[in-house]
């Protein structure tokens, strides 16, 4: 039997695309590591800085606050950061742009890395980027680069052991997240539509199950 990679002792969990209080409260209650606010107007989960600030203000501590942006210009980033305090900027952009954003704004940057085959897996993380998000390339005709509930072929990641922090995204839900972590050894996972009862509306019960199942993976010697 092929030995599976061993994930971190605590599989990190990010719940993305929060738009309402019940979902945010469930993330706090069940111990999500990160919560994500989407600042991309083509997404059904898009929020304004004021809405994100209101949600974040429901709990002073708790999960790290992440803002998601798609090819943002400096003006957009500055406007959002002026309206809500964010701990991380998660962006879709080039390696060069990601490094530039990190140096300009002094906020940790995560960069999306869409893949469809083994050769697409990155061998290094760009300077200034704290973490890479490994997710499927969007389908033809998609209006969004992510959040399409598309599942990656996890088997292409078997034996891939990067030296930098990364996170698995794409098509995850409470039923399959344990298998995904088992196969890929992902140290952290990101979910949005997989814990929703409707686009943009999170299910507290699904959030609880997702977090529990993501952290329940065990490995035999």
Question: Could you characterize what this model shows?
Answer:
The protein has 221 residues and is an alpha/beta fold. The chain contains six helices and ten strands; from the N terminus they run E-H-E-H-E-H-E-H-E-E-E-H-E-E-E-H. The chain has an eight-stranded parallel beta barrel. A two-stranded antiparallel sheet has the order 9-10. Helix 1 packs parallel to helix 6. It is globular. It starts with 11 loop residues before the first strand and ends in a 7-residue tail after the last helix.
Mean pLDDT: 91
Distance between the termini: 11 Å
Helix content class: 25-40%
N to C succession of SSEs:
EHEHEHEHEEEHEEEH
Q: Spatial order of the strands in the main sheet?
A: 1-2-3-4-5-6-7-8
Overall outline: globular
What CATH architecture would you give? Alpha-Beta Barrel
**Sequence stretches where pLDDT stays below 50 over 5 or more residues:** 1-7
